[in-house]
Amino acid sequence: MAEVARFIPLNFERMTVETQLNRSRAFLEHMRRRRTVRHFSTEPVPFELIQNAIATAGTAPSGANQQPWAFVVVSDPEVKRRIRIAAEAEEKESYQRRMSDEWLEALAPLGTDWHKPHLEEVPYLIVVFRQSYGLKTNPATGEQVRIKHYYSEESVGIAVGFLLASLHHAGLATLTHTPSPMGFLREILGRPENERPFVLIPVGYPAADAQVPDIQKKSLDEIMIIIGDESHM
Ligand code: IYR
Fold first, then answer.
1. Which residue among 84, 95, 100, 112 is best mutated to probe the pocket of ligand 1, counting the most ligand atoms within 8 A of its Cβ?
2. What is the Å distance from ligand 1's center to 133 Cα?
3. pLDDT tens digits, residue range 149-169?
4. Of 60, 72, 78, 159, which one is least surrounded by beta carbons within 10 A?
5. Pocket lining for ligand 1, CB < 6 angstroms
């Protein structure tokens, strides 16, 4: 039997337009300073910052509110080491054989290669898993039943956006890393068969001498298309 919808009053804070503009501008300026970092310090990070960021990710909207995600936090040096070794093996093969010239050319401005020392140097790795379907135990039979998940890719993508924004807001640096293929993460971390690795995120403070590639974001004109008359705004 389908569950019936129940409703409660929305807890919504209406702001003055001035407050709205101030907050929106401050958030934009703050997010403009976020950079993907590949040179990290080994300095420890307060664990609550990681917990709060994952709790923030957990507030994301998702298809049918199915919340098809799991966030594995790795600080164990031995596990980080196994992840680095496996990731570098895949990345070496990718850079040397699997990636097309067109792909390598697209990556050239980032200056990346197969070496991933940061996977061991950072205090935390957050490995995000997407549950391509749900697993529930039928209480009557004890059998595992598969639950279809809707829009799991989009849902996890949105949650990761929340996670990255929260970590940046908390003064931490991140890297969205997708070694390809990523199947080794499921094995090393012992995740169930319904979970697929989505992204591997090293989190920490940047190294004191960290450098980032000199690349630009597209301008608002390039990404926003207006249908309507906003000239009075
Ligand atoms: N996964 C590789 C290659 C790589 C691919 C993309 I698309 C990037 O934006 C950056 C890197 C690596 O991490 O080096």
1. 112
2. 27
3. 999 999 999 999 999 999 999
4. 78
5. 91, 107, 110, 112, 177-180
